[in-house]
Design a protein that fits this description.
Four Helix Bundle (Hemerythrin (Met), subunit A); Maleyloyr_isom; Mycothiol-dependent maleylpyruvate isomerase metal-binding domain-containing protein; 6 helices; 52% helix; mainly alpha; globular; CHP03086; two-stranded antiparallel ribbon; 2 strands
């Protein structure tokens, strides 16, 4: 458990992704939760609901229990509680579940329709989901990008393992990178996002 009472998974990439998602959500002004995001048709609240539900889905794939009660792909946009109070239990559940998966374990279950994945890919997929939706919320609400080049490089290694089979289902068509793009831009474009997106 982290020093602030938050669960950690022991999977460094996931723990960093959870950190940036928490920091981004904490930085949203109360009046900005209805703002549009790079996720077409979803506002910031809906992206938060989707991201939280996905983390619970990863937890449930490992533990066999406690999956999301609402469809993460049909978020209501209605939150009855403080966004951080909503998010924390979802991230903690994912961290607790992944903390039970040792680094020596070869494969792990995920909610993705790809079957069991190499464990580093499965934990990385959960990280990718959390970190990229942190970016979505950040740019929607006027915050700096929470993605660093180092984090983006690590996430790109995961993305190349899972995105193409899910392209039509969960990711927009890739955007061709340019030689001037940094690692964050390369990752975002691979996931079908415009690094210069603005509401």
């Amino acid at each position: 458990m982290g020093g602030n009472g938050q669960q950690v998974s022991g999977w460094e990439l996931m723990d960093e992704a959870h950190r940036v998602l928490r920091a981004t959500v904490a930085g949203v002004a109360p009046g900005d939760w209805g703002r549009p995001t790079p996720c077409a048709q979803w506002n910031a609240t809906q992206v938060l609901q989707h991201a939280a539900g996905d983390q619970l889905g990863y937890a449930a794939a490992i533990t066999g229990e406690g999956g999301p009660t609402e469809n993460p792909f049909a978020p209501s946009g209605q939150l009855a509680q403080d966004p951080m109070d909503f998010l924390d239990p979802h991230l903690d559940a994912a961290a607790r579940a992944w903390a039970t998966v040792g680094k020596e374990v070869e494969t792990a279950m995920t909610p993705l329709p790809l079957g069991p994945l190499p464990t580093w890919v499965g934990s990385g997929a959960a990280a990718l989901d959390a970190a990229v939706h942190a970016w979505d919320i950040a740019v929607a609400t006027g915050q700096p990008s929470p993605l660093t080049d180092e984090l983006a490089r690590s996430l790109m290694k995961v993305a190349t393992q899972i995105v193409e089979p899910l392209r039509a289902f969960a990711f927009a068509p890739a955007i061709e990178p340019t030689p001037a793009d940094d690692d964050v831009a390369v990752l975002l474009k691979y996931l079908g996002r415009r690094p210069d997106w603005a509401a």
